[in-house]
């Protein structure tokens, strides 16, 4: 009897997982806390060096001042005549390169022609523009915070971006409100969530429904003419989302990009001609500031730290004198510099947590005029003659402020050491528990097989083969590579290398087993024992070929995304009709391959045909969706399209669940008529139980795999339809290889093979360790209105399509290896059988993931002061955490499915046995 019972194994596994969850949660909240901020709001002390007593007294005295008195006080203290009205136009996702060019070169011709009015303002010195570098993560909410508060938020703001809370820190909007300025907001409803109750009028739209590229901007512009004719506001915020949505759907080079830029140019023209050129003196001076929260990558996504994503725009239109600053279009400032600049231009205190500095060029000759005026008032004529010295001093101060700003922006937050230590200790403990259980399973598996094999075979078993050695060495390769930022950015190369190398080693083993010398002809290679080895050889060869195609499909990574690959070649060589044709063919092949594999086992045809029909129905609906939406990639989803997709979701969900729940109860109809019930717990009964378990697991595992691939054909970009087909081929071919594997092929090596293929497929679908490769557009397919939960689930499914497929395939793997358990002794209890069934398929993914999780946690701590800690290592850690969730979900489904199936089959036999005994009596 084994020393490790199934109950103990389950209990220790659960303890290990719980310890890992607790440790991971503590570490995440300790390493990524909300960045500390100074409480309260800036006051008069913002305009001069204060002492403690003066600050306390001033803040106390000004607390009771009415807004108009407070405004006058700030204006007097600032020393600058402020602007009266501000129009802040936010064009979401607009790269500054589209307006200002790059590296001293103008934008592309089509971009210049798309925004003629804006370009004329810059060329004529009527606007001054900057590349305003945004800090990662480059998503909307933290970037808006940076522009209005001048502060760099915490890294986990990328998660809070989907559930925006009110901004409590000091910021320009609150400062405007305190001095009685009236504010109006049109556009992205994120502003309403950040500043609830502060806007006199507002019309918010959802920023996450990225399929909408038209209505989302029309909802803003429809109020513009009316608001420009009003003078009852001091701040007008316009946040346009359409350009960002165009990027998410079609990338930087989308055919809709130029028309959208033209639409934005018309808005700039309307504001400039209607409010700035023709402004009335008694209504004060109006300043138009056109900004973007972030840029976008070549694929149109954002969130990472590449130049294309951090290259945001800051364009000032309506300043007094910018004729001498046309060269500033080549300058780079920081996004946090916008807050102090606007604060001084509008006579409000600079927010307390600001780390930005003034964009001095926006003040033009105003600063010099104030300096000369103050010199004349003080009769200090000698200072008038020291203009050059004055400029030198100002330059030195600016240099110091810039260095200080960069240091404060990069400064890591204080981390609670005890919390981090406890979190790491809990994850290490969890890893040791899971690895210990895995080692015990390996030992028991070895001892069991040793009893069933001859002496020669036992001697061979005690020898480590190359594939086994390499599978273990891979772990060390992955752990070592995590310490390099470049290897983290280009991790896809490691997984493709690991997967292909392990396949080559398995091919070598299969070829060595072929008895080629005794074969009289090529056909004899597939007779007798050679038949098994021949099928193994073909299976591994197909794995290598499909893996190589997947490797070349997407260049992936961060640094070399511009290199050619198959997806770029197809997109450049053909139009949307070609891509849709490829998607349609891939869909047909997925359906055909799935139906063919359904009839592999010798089962009754009618029930199998019913299952096939349950699969064919959503398959045909997916094909219908592909054909129906062939020409509407950029159009908002219609009601009929949304209804069709929701129908597919429903059929796929209920079809998969129905097969998994009902099939164990109907298992006798799957087997041949010769398999009849005998006396309770007889030898035949024991074999029939295992046979029914094998058949049910095969069909349920088949349903998981094939229905998941259909779902991915629906959600993934059309260019990824072929990789989905190839991943399905890899799973089925891998199952074929495992079916014919003998005792010299360790199960832990086979499970590791699927895990490695799943990770390689993850990058083959275009994913990387940058947040910019997350497919946001696909997360809204079939959703009629924005839902953070639903879109988040779909986004997770799209991102982890391949790893989840590999883990779900373990249900079929258990069935494929079911023949190994038919030879188990009759006295084996259910616990020992379930332990043999689920040991490697569940423990190995948990163990491998725990090693990588602990290793990367330690790496993140060591790299906490690294230059790329927030741009490279931290995004990677978020992916590691998400992969951990993926493993938990996948393993839970596998374990629950097999345990449920075995319980139903055992329950039925117990009930049948009881009925038989009663009949005999």
Number of domains: 2
Structural class: mainly alpha
Largest sheet descriptor: 8 strands, mixed
Low-pLDDT regions: 673-683
Total strand count, please? 8
Strand content: 5-15%
> Mean pLDDT, nearest integer?
81
Round the Cα radius of gyration to an integer and report it.
Answer: 33 Å
How would you sum up this structure, described in words?
- InterPro entries: Alkaline_phosphatase_core_sf, Phosphodiest/P_Trfase, PIG-G_N, PIGG/GPI7, PIGG/GPI7_C.
- Belongs to the PIGG/PIGN/PIGO family. PIGG subfamily.
- It is found in: Endoplasmic reticulum membrane.
- With 921 residues, the chain is mainly alpha-helical.
- It has two domains: 353 residues, Alkaline Phosphatase, subunit A, CATH 3.40.720; 364 residues, no CATH class.
- The chain contains 37 helices and eight strands.
- Strands 4-3-5-1-6-7-2-8 form an eight-stranded mixed beta sheet.
- β3, α10 and β4 form a beta-alpha-beta unit.
- α27 runs antiparallel to α28, α31 packs antiparallel against α32 and α34 packs parallel to α37.
- About 1% of the residues have low confidence.
Give a short overview.
61% of the residues lie in helices and 5% in strands. It is mostly helical and 921 residues long. It has two domains: 34-361 and 388-412, Alkaline Phosphatase, subunit A (3-Layer(aba) Sandwich), CATH 3.40.720; 464-827, no CATH class.
Secondary-structure blueprint of this entry?
Elements: H1 6-31, H2 52-62, H3 67-78, E1 85-91, H4 97-100, H5 109-114, H6 116-123, E2 127-133, H7 140-149, H8 157-160, H9 172-178, E3 183-188, H10 190-194, E4 201-205, H11 215-221, H12 224-228, E5 235-240, H13 242-250, H14 257-276, E6 286-291, H15 307-310, E7 311-317, E8 332-334, H16 338-345, H17 366-377, H18 381-384, H19 387-410, H20 417-452, H21 455-461, H22 466-481, H23 485-489, H24 492-513, H25 529-553, H26 566-573, H27 576-598, H28 605-628, H29 639-662, H30 683-715, H31 721-739, H32 747-764, H33 788-799, H34 801-808, H35 810-816, H36 830-862, H37 869-920
Parallel strand pairs: 1-5, 1-6, 2-8, 3-4, 3-5
Antiparallel strand pairs: 2-7, 6-7
């Amino acid at each position: 009897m084994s020393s490790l019972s199934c109950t103990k194994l389950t209990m220790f596994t659960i303890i290990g997982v719980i310890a890992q969850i607790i440790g991971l949660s503590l570490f995440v909240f300790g390493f990524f806390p909300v960045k500390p901020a100074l409480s309260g709001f800036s006051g008069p002390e913002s305009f001069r060096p204060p002492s403690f007593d003066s600050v306390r007294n001033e803040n106390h005295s000004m607390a009771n001042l009415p807004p108009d008195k407070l405004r006058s006080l700030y204006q007097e203290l600032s020393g600058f005549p402020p602007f009266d009205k501000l129009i802040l136009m936010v064009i979401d996702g607009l790269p500054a390169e589209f307006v200002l060019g790059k590296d001293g070169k103008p934008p592309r011709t089509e971009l210049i022609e798309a925004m003629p009015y804006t370009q004329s303002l810059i060329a004529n010195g009527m606007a001054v523009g900057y590349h305003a570098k945004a800090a990662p993560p480059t998503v909307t909410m933290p970037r808006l915070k940076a522009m209005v508060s001048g502060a760099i938020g915490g890294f986990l703001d990328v998660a809070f971006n989907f559930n925006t809370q009110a901004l409590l820190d000091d910021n320009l909007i609150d400062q405007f409100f305190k001095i009685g300025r009236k504010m109006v907001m049109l556009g992205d409803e994120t502003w309403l969530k950040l500043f609830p109750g502060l806007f006199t009028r507002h019309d918010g739209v959802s920023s996450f429904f990225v399929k909408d590229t038209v209505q989302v901007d029309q909802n803003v512009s429809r109020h513009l003419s009316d608001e420009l004719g009003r003078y009852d506001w001091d701040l007008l915020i316009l946040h346009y989302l359409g350009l960002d949505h165009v990027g998410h759907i079609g990338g930087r080079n989308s055919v809709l990009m130029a028309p959208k830029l033209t639409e934005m140019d018309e808005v700039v023209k309307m504001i400039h001609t209607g409010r700035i050129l023709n402004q009335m003196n008694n209504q004060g001076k109006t300043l138009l500031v056109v900004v973007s929260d972030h840029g976008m990558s070549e694929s149109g996504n954002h969130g990472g730290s590449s130049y294309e994503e951090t290259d945001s725009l800051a364009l000032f239109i309506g300043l007094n004198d910018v004729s001498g600053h046309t060269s500033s279009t080549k300058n780079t400032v920081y996004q946090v510099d916008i807050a102090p600049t606007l604060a001084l231009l509008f006579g409000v205190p600079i927010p307390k947590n600001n780390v930005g500095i003034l964009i001095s060029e926006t003040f033009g000759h105003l600063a010099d005029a104030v300096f000369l005026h103050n010199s004349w008032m003080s009769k200090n004529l000698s200072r008038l003659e020291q203009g050059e010295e004055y400029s030198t001093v100002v330059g030195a101060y600016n240099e110091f402020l810039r260095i200080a700003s960069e240091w404060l922006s990069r400064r890591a937050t204080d981390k609670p050491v005890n919390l981090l230590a406890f979190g790491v200790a809990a994850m290490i403990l969890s890893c040791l528990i899971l690895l210990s259980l895995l080692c015990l399973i390996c030992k028991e598996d070895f001892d069991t097989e040793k009893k069933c094999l001859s002496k020669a075979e036992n001697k061979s078993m005690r020898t480590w083969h190359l594939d086994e050695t390499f599978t273990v060495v891979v772990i060390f390769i992955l752990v070592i590579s995590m310490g390099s930022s470049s290897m983290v950015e280009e991790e896809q190369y490691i997984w493709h290398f690991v997967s292909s190398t392990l396949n080559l080693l398995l091919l070598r083993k299969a070829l060595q087993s072929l008895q080629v010398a005794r074969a009289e002809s090529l056909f004899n290679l597939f007779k007798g024992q050679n038949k098994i080895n021949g099928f193994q050889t073909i299976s591994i060869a197909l794995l290598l070929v499909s893996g190589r195609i997947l490797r070349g499909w997407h260049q992936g990574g961060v640094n070399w995304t511009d290199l050619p690959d198959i997806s770029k070649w197809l997109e450049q060589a053909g139009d949307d009709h070609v891509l849709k044709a490829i998607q349609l063919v891939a869909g047909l092949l997925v359906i055909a391959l799935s139906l063919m594999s359904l009839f592999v086992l010798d089962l009754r045809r009618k029930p199998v045909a019913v299952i096939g029909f349950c699969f064919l129905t959503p398959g045909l609906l997916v094909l219908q969706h592909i054909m129906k939406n062939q020409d509407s990639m950029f159009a908002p989803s219609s009601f009929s399209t949304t209804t069709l997709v929701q129908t597919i979701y429903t059929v796929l969900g209920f079809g998969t669940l129905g097969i998994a729940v009902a099939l164990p109860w109907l298992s006798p109809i799957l087997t041949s008529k010769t398999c009849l019930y005998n006396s309770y717990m007889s030898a035949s009964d024991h074999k029939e139980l295992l046979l029914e378990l094998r058949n049910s697991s095969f069909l349920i595992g088949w349903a998981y795999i094939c229905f998941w691939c259909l779902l991915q054909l629906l959600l993934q970009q059309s260019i990824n339809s072929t990789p989905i087909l190839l991943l399905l081929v890899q799973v089925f071919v891998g199952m074929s290889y495992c079916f014919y594997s003998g005792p010299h092929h360790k199960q832990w090596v086979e499970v590791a093979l699927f895990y490695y293929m799943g990770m390689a497929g993850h990058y083959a679908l275009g994913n990387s360790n940058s947040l910019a490769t997350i497919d946001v557009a696909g997360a809204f397919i079939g959703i009629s209105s924005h839902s953070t939960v639903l879109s988040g689930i779909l986004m997770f499914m799209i991102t982890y399509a391949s790893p989840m497929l590999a883990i779900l395939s373990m249900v079929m793997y258990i069935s494929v290896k079911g023949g190994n358990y038919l030879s188990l002794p009759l006295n084996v209890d259910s616990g020992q059988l379930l332990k043999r069934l689920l040991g490697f398929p569940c423990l190995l993914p948990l163990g491998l993931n725990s090693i990588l999780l602990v290793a990367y946690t330690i790496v993140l701590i060591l790299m906490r002061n690294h230059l790329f800690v927030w741009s490279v290592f931290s995004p990677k850690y978020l992916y590691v955490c998400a992969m951990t969730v993926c493993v938990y979900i996948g393993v839970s489904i596998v374990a629950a499915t097999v345990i449920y199936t075995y319980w139903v089959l055992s329950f039925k036999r117990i009930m049948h046995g009881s009925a038989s005994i009663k009949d005999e009596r």
